[in-house]
Design a protein that fits this description.
The structure holds two protein chains of two kinds. Chain A is α/β, with parallel strands linked by helices. Chain A is built from 14 helices and eleven strands. Chain A folds into two domains: 141 residues, Peroxisomal Thiolase, Chain A, domain 1; 234 residues, Thiolase/Chalcone synthase (Peroxisomal Thiolase, Chain A, domain 1, 3-Layer(aba) Sandwich). In chain A, the strands form two sheets. Chain A has a nine-stranded mixed sheet with strand order 3-2-4-7-1-8-11-10-9, with helices on both faces. Classes of the chains: A alpha/beta, B mainly beta. Chains A and B meet through α5, α6 and β5 of A and β4, α3, β5, β6 and β8 of B.
Chain lengths: 388, 129
C-alpha cells in the first residue's frame, strides 16, 4: 500500500445558512480545498462525499453526481460516491478516499462532507437524527438521539465518579476553543453556570450539553505521499486509518458506557501507525454530547474508565493542557453539520500540523488524531496524522 | 412516517415474542434470526418472554419529535428482561419515580398516533411492579 497525504483542505463557516443551499455550501468547501492544493479540477480522479440524510433534510438523493456536476466536473465523468454512516459519514468518506489512493486505484481524490439541516424544523430534524440509531426498536418507542446519550450519561454517572460540573466543563472548554476558530458556529465563551442553567433536554443532559443543528460543508484532497510535494510544501501524512462497527441499538451493547467500536478503531489505528497514546499531541473527538467526549477520551485509551471527568476539570484537555481535545471547538461549539463533521475534524488536524491554527494553535504539534462516531457508537472512524 | 409501516403485522410489536438459540441458550429480544455467537451452528426457536425485568438506565425525555411531543416529559429506559436481553421502552411512571434497578413489568399500550386523524399504533411499555 502507498503512503497517503492530505494536500488541501477547505471548509465553509458553520452555522445556520438560511440564505444558502446545499450545493452552494459543498461547492464553496470543494473549491477552497482544490485551491489550497493548487490543483486544476480535471486532475481529480474520484470523489467521496459523506452525507447522512439529504433525503430527509432537503429531499434530495443521488448527491454524489449532483456535487460532481455543480463542482464543474460533469464533463470529466469522474466516479462520485456518496458515503453514509450517520454522523460518521464524513470520517468514512475520508477513509474511502485514503484507501482508494493507498491501493493505487486513484491518485488525486477529494473527500468531502456536507449537511444542510435548517431547511426543516427542529421536530423533523430530531426525527431524522433518530434514524442514526435503531429506528424500529429505539426511535419507534420514543427514543430521541439526546435521550440515548442521556441514558449513557445516567449509566456512567451511576457507576463512575463524574460530577455534573465536570460534564459542563467539557462544553465550557469547547466553547473557549470555538471562540478562537473563525469557522465555528458559536464563537462565544460560556461558563459552567451557562450549562447548568440551560433547559433540560433529556435528563441529565441540558441544551448546552448538546451539539447544535448546523449547516456546513468541508472538503479535503488526498494524494500519494510521493506526489504530494508537487502540490504543497506542507503535506500532512495519514499515519493510520481505522474503522469499526458495533450493535446498532444502545441496549444491545456489551457495556452501555463504553463505545467498543471506539476501543477497536483506536487500537487498530495505534497499531497501524506504530504509535503509543503518549505520542499524540492533540485529538479531535466526537463530542455530539458532553458525555460523548468523556467516553471518547477513555475509550481511545488516554486514561482509565472513570477518569476523564477529573482530567477535564484539571485542564489536561484544555488548549494549553497536556492533551488538548477538540481545539476546533468540537461538535459542541464549532457545530455539527452531520455529514461534514468527520471531514472538518481532518481539516482541523491539518491546520494544527501545518501551524496554521491561529489563536488556537498548539505549539509544536507533530501528531494528531481524529475520532468520528456514527449513531450511539455503531460506527467509528479513527485517523492519525503527522507532519511529513 | 407512512401508514403501512405501523400497520404491518409484526407480532413482536404487540407481544414480547422473541427468539432463543437452543445451541447456546441465549435469548433475543428484539428477535434475531441469526445467533451472533453460534451463527449457522445455532438453532433459533421462538420464545415468549415473561415480561418482567429491571431498569438498567433511563432518562426523562423533555424534547421530542412531533409524534411524542404531547407525552413529554416521559421516562425512557433500557430494561433488562429476566431472561437476559435488553430493550428500550417507555416507563409508565412519573419522572421522580424512576430509578436504576427499578423492577418493572411489560404492559400493552398505545405508543402514538399518525397525525391528528391517522392510525393509532401500539406497542410495549413497562410499568413499576
Amino acid at each position: 500500500m502507498r503512503d497517503v497525504a492530505v494536500i488541501g483542505i477547505g471548509c465553509t463557516k458553520f452555522g445556520e445558512w438560511w440564505d444558502r443551499s446545499f450545493r452552494n455550501l459543498i461547492v464553496e468547501a470543494g473549491v477552497k480545498a482544490i485551491e489550497d492544493a493548487n490543483l486544476a479540477g480535471e486532475q481529480i480522479d474520484a470523489m467521496y462525499v459523506g452525507n447522512m440524510s439529504a433525503g430527509r433534510f432537503i429531499e434530495q438523493e443521488h448527491i454524489g453526481a449532483l456535487i460532481a456536476d455543480y463542482s464543474g466536473l460533469a464533463a470529466e465523468h469522474i466516479p462520485a460516491t456518496r458515503v453514509e454512516a450517520a454522523c460518521a459519514s464524513g470520517g468514512l468518506a475520508f477513509r474511502d478516499a485514503v484507501t482508494a489512493v493507498a491501493s493505487g486505484m486513484s491518485d488525486i481524490v477529494v473527500a468531502a462532507g456536507v449537511e444542510k439541516m435548517t431547511d426543516v424544523d427542529t421536530s423533523m430534524s430530531t426525527d431524522a437524527l433518530a434514524g442514526a440509531a435503531d429506528r424500529e426498536w429505539e426511535g419507534f418507542v420514543g427514543a430521541t438521539f439526546p435521550g440515548l446519550y442521556a441514558m449513557i450519561a445516567n449509566d456512567y454517572m451511576h457507576r463512575y465518579p463524574l460530577t455534573r460540573e465536570q460534564l459542563a466543563q467539557v462544553a465550557v472548554k469547547n466553547h473557549y476553543n470555538g471562540a478562537r476558530n473563525p469557522i465555528a458556529q458559536f464563537q462565544k465563551e460560556i461558563t459552567i453556570d451557562t450549562v447548568l442553567n440551560s433547559t433540560l433536554v433529556a435528563d441529565p443532559l441540558r441544551l448546552f450539553d448538546c451539539s447544535p443543528i448546523t449547516d456546513g460543508a468541508a472538503a479535503v484532497v488526498v494524494a500519494p505521499l510521493e506526489m504530494a510535494k508537487k502540490f504543497t510544501d506542507t503535506p500532512i501524512k495519514v499515519l493510520a486509518t481505522a474503522q469499526a462497527s458495533d450493535t446498532i441499538a444502545l441496549h444491545d451493547r456489551r457495556d452501555i458506557s463504553t463505545l467498543d467500536a471506539t476501543v477497536a478503531a483506536g487500537n487498530r489505528a495505534f497499531k497501524m501507525a506504530g504509535l503509543e497514546r503518549k505520542d499524540i499531541d492533540f485529538v479531535e473527538v466526537h463530542d455530539c454530547f458532553t458525555i460523548a467526549e468523556i467516553c471518547a477520551i477513555e475509550d481511545l485509551g488516554f486514561c482509565k474508565k472513570g477518569e476523564a471527568g477529573k482530567l477535564t476539570e484539571e485542564g489536561v484537555t484544555a488548549l494549553n493542557g497536556d492533551l488538548p481535545v477538540n481545539t476546533s471547538g468540537g461538535l459542541k461549539a464549532c457545530g455539527h453539520p452531520v455529514g461534514a463533521t468527520g471531514i472538518k475534524q481532518v481539516c482541523e488536524a491539518v491546520l494544527q500540523l501545518r501551524g496554521e491554527a491561529g489563536k488556537r494553535q498548539i505549539e509544536g504539534a507533530e501528531i494528531g488524531m481524529t475520532h468520528n462516531v456514527g449513531g450511539t457508537g455503531a460506527t467509528v472512524a479513527v485517523h492519525i496524522f503527522g507532519r511529513d | 412516517m407512512s401508514v403501512p409501516r405501523f400497520w404491518r403485522k409484526i407480532p413482536q410489536r404487540y407481544n414480547l415474542e422473541g427468539t432463543r438459540c437452543e445451541t447456546c441458550g441465549r435469548y433475543f429480544f428484539p428477535p434475531r434470526n441469526l445467533c451472533p455467537t453460534c451463527r449457522r451452528e445455532g438453532k433459533i426457536v421462538e420464545h415468549t418472554f415473561k415480561g418482567t425485568g429491571k431498569i438498567v438506565t433511563f432518562t426523562v425525555i423533555r424534547s421530542a419529535s412531533d409524534q411524542f411531543a404531547k407525552l413529554t416529559p416521559y421516562v425512557l429506559a433500557i430494561v433488562e428482561l429476566e431472561e437476559g436481553p435488553r430493550m428500550t421502552a417507555q416507563i409508565v411512571c412519573s419522572p421522580e419515580e424512576a430509578y436504576i434497578g427499578m423492577p418493572v413489568k411489560a404492559v400493552f399500550r398505545r405508543l402514538g398516533t399518525e397525525g391528528e386523524s391517522g392510525v393509532i399504533y401500539y406497542g410495549t411499555k413497562f410499568a413499576p411492579m
